[in-house]
Amino acid sequence: MASQAREEDSDDGMDEFMEKFKTHKYKNAFSESNWEEEFDNVPMFMKSAPGEIDPVKHPDLACLQSIIHDDDRPPEEQAKSLKDEGNEYFKEKNYKKAIVSYTAGLKKNSADSDLNAILYTNRAAAHFHLGNMRSALNDATAARKLKPGHIKAIVRGAQCCMELCNYADALQWCDEGLRVQPTDKKLQELRATADKQKRAAERDARKAKAKEKKQQNERGALLAAIKERGIRLLKAEKAMRRGSDSEDDEGSTAAMAELSLDGLSCQEATGAQVYLDEQGALHWPVLFLYPEHRQTDFISAFCENSSFIDHLVVMFGEELPPWDTDKKYQPPNLQMFFEDHEKGHLYEVHLETSLLDVLQRPGCSVKAGTPSFIILVKGSPFCKQFLSGKKVHRLP
């Protein structure tokens, strides 16, 4: 509809123009008295070309002639014309066309090194305004090579290095220019800014390196603490590989992840990860599963020295969860189990046991960085059905 409206507007404008044209003669139209003479001045309708073309009297013909015989001019003249053309485009902020003109000028292979340096410098400026910093820097470098000490090229090279965050190179460009013109304010300002940014970048790099080293030390201490406790980490993809060979000791060992943070990948999903506090205790993210109601609870930092009952009395204290409509989930009524992820067996956990004691038991492993436990209501119909057909071990 919008395009149709624009077309209608255009048609209306043309109708108005044609109506006006009927009553007002076109000012630059051919006159009826000497139209043949005037036609003869138009290159397309000339019966014969004049012997010597006067650019004032025949500007159109002179323009055509210059185009036809352009290759006859010396390369320097052609390159200069293309440079001037590029400059006009540049003034109009038509940088793409300016680049085309400057490039055409360079292809003329002029022997004038100063002219070629200007073409490179001007093309560098056009590239700079288009955001092509690498191309601009290459052109500035080429211009400087042709004309050492060319300040405009040096300034442009320094500016490109600044945009590319190559502050050390920017300082070198500035120093080179200041040796030529020590009082150039533009170069002085660029150098001061480059020096400041270089110092800031070096400071940030030192901080990042120190932070990385600190994190590496913390990761090393964390893994050492887990290894010292004999806690097994299981990668999530390995935990899903159960089959006829799952009972095999060798296959079981292969399924276990090597002791690395690859087995602690829960941080991406939950935002929590095991950490070592200043007292040397591990704090784990722990997941409680309630299969009867398809519900879960998540504790982001379960201290390894805390017992399960410490958390359960809080979770199922005075205020019971809304899904426990029968108020069955009270600590004295609960049974808790962990699953052997390799064999599929269940191990019952005493609620007074600490998390560390359970994690160190045979058959217990940490999958995806998060120990998980199943909680059932003791003796309930669902509990009996859930445990039927499963091999359940009672921890001493």
TrEMBL record:
PANTHER family: TETRATRICOPEPTIDE REPEAT PROTEIN 4. One of its GO terms (biological process) is protein folding. Belongs to the TTC4 family. Residues 192-217 have a biased composition (Basic and acidic residues). This is WH2 domain-containing protein. Gene3D superfamilies: Tetratricopeptide repeat domain. It comes from Hemibagrus wyckioides. Keywords: Repeat, TPR repeat. SUPFAM superfamilies: TPR-like. GO terms for cellular component: cytosol; nucleus.
